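Support request, please re-run this one:
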Amino acid sequence: MRTSTLRTLNRAAELTRQNRLTEAMLIAEPVILTADEYEGAEIRRWLLDHVADFTGENQNHDEQKELP
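Re-run finished. Output below.
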């Protein structure tokens, strides 16, 4: 993944945690849409691995929570 892409994703995560989702989408969407198939796959993996960066929660995407 390009350094600029990673920097943009990190900034979007920061904005999302600050409840500035519109701004986060404005900077992240063009990067995501222009990625080639290889970088797109890296972006998807990064997003899955960094859910907590956006939500502020600790969550493992490989674990499924069971409802009571």
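The longest helix spans residues 3-17. Confidence is low (pLDDT under 50) at residues 61-68.
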